[in-house]
Amino acid sequence: MPPPSGYMPAAAMPGNEAIPAGIHVVMNHAKIVKLSSAAATVIIGNPEIADATVRDAQTLVLTGRGFGQTNLVILDAGGNPILDERIAVSRENGAALRIYRQAEIETLSCEPFCEKAYLTEAELQSIRAIAEANDTGN
């Protein structure tokens, strides 16, 4: 499916790789999104996953805040949609380490040195469920 009219991510500009489906942002990194129309309203589905900063009416800066997927909706001054796109935020190079100490789980991001990683509530729930299953022998 082609991107909506008026939308061109900086990664799709000549000399950069195109984004296959939606917008991919690396955790704790920023990505420039250029619009051909002026944005009046910017909506992020889940601000724990991604954040948008308006640089000017036609330039947004997306920042990966947490791992997962959400969406970005941009409206013009008349309330008409300019963009409705999926955003996927992932780790860079998958350099993560998860340490299990009985019921305690610690997740580290190792780029280049290991330090505690930020986890979204969904990730925390998943980790708790795995730990509970391991504790009960399931």
TrEMBL record:
The record's annotation in InterPro entries points to: T2SS-T3SS_pil_N
Q: Which domain of life is it from?
A: Bacteria
Q: Name one Pfam family in it.
A: T2SS-T3SS_pil_N
Record domain Pilus formation protein N-terminal: where: 23-90
> Which protein are we looking at?
Pilus formation protein N-terminal domain-containing protein
Q: Name the source organism.
A: Oricola cellulosilytica
